[in-house]
Write a structure and sequence with these properties.
The chain is an alpha/beta fold. It is built from 7 helices and 5 strands.
C-alpha cells in the first residue's frame, strides 16, 4: 500500500471527539490570551513550528488580539540546555521558566516516548498548564500526561507525521481561529 493511502486511512480513522477537544483547547487559549507552547523532536519539531506559525499568523481571539504562541526551541537555547543539563531537560526548563497556569503546552511526538517531551508534559502539569498531545502508536508515556490527545494508532513515523501535519493545518484554519482573515 502506498504511503499516501496508508496516511489517508489513518486520517479518516481519527476520533472526532479528540479533534473537537483539541480545537476547543486551542480556541479557548486564543480567546483568553493564554499562551500556547509547542514542541517536539525532528519532524515533530517542524510540525510544532508550523502550528506556532499558523496560530500566530491567523489566530485571533474575540477582541481581535493575536494568538500568543511560542515554539520551545531555538538553536542556541536548545544546545546550551542540552550541553549543560542534558537533552531530556530542553523543553521542561523552558516551560518551567515561562508557562503559567491555564497556558497550553502542545506536545507533538510520533512515539510519545521521547524523554524530553515526557518531562516537559510532567513540568506542564505540575504548573497547572493544560496539556495537549499529538501522538502516534498508543501514545506512549506522554498519553496519560495529556489532558487532551489526538492519537494516530500507527507506528510508521511518516504516516504519523503526515497525519499530525494535516491536523495542525486544519485546526489552524478552522474553529481554533474563527474570525481570522485567510
Amino acid at each position: 500500500m502506498s504511503l499516501c493511502l496508508h496516511t489517508a486511512e489513518h486520517l479518516v480513522g481519527l476520533r472526532p471527539a479528540e479533534l473537537r477537544a483539541c480545537a476547543a483547547v486551542l480556541r479557548a487559549a486564543v480567546a483568553t490570551g493564554a499562551r500556547i507552547f509547542t514542541f517536539g523532536n525532528g519532524g515533530s519539531a517542524a510540525t510544532a513550528s508550523h502550528l506556532a506559525c499558523d496560530l500566530t499568523g491567523r489566530g485571533r481571539g474575540p477582541t481581535g488580539r493575536r494568538a500568543r504562541v511560542r515554539t520551545l526551541y531555538d538553536a542556541a537555547t536548545t544546545t546550551a540546555i542540552a550541553n549543560d543539563h542534558g537533552y531530556d531537560e530542553v523543553f521542561c526548563r523552558l516551560l518551567d521558566g515561562d508557562a503559567e497556569p491555564d497556558d497550553v503546552a502542545v506536545a507533538i511526538s510520533v512515539s510519545g516516548r521521547s524523554r524530553n517531551v515526557v518531562r516537559a508534559l510532567e513540568a506542564a502539569r505540575r504548573g497547572g498548564v493544560v496539556t495537549v498531545g499529538l501522538l502516534g502508536g498508543d501514545g506512549g508515556a506522554a498519553r496519560p500526561l495529556c489532558d487532551v490527545a489526538v492519537t494516530v494508532p500507527c507506528i510508521d513515523y511518516g504516516v504519523v507525521e503526515s497525519v499530525h501535519l494535516a491536523v495542525v493545518s486544519t485546526e489552524t484554519t478552522g474553529p481554533a481561529t474563527a474570525g481570522a482573515r485567510t
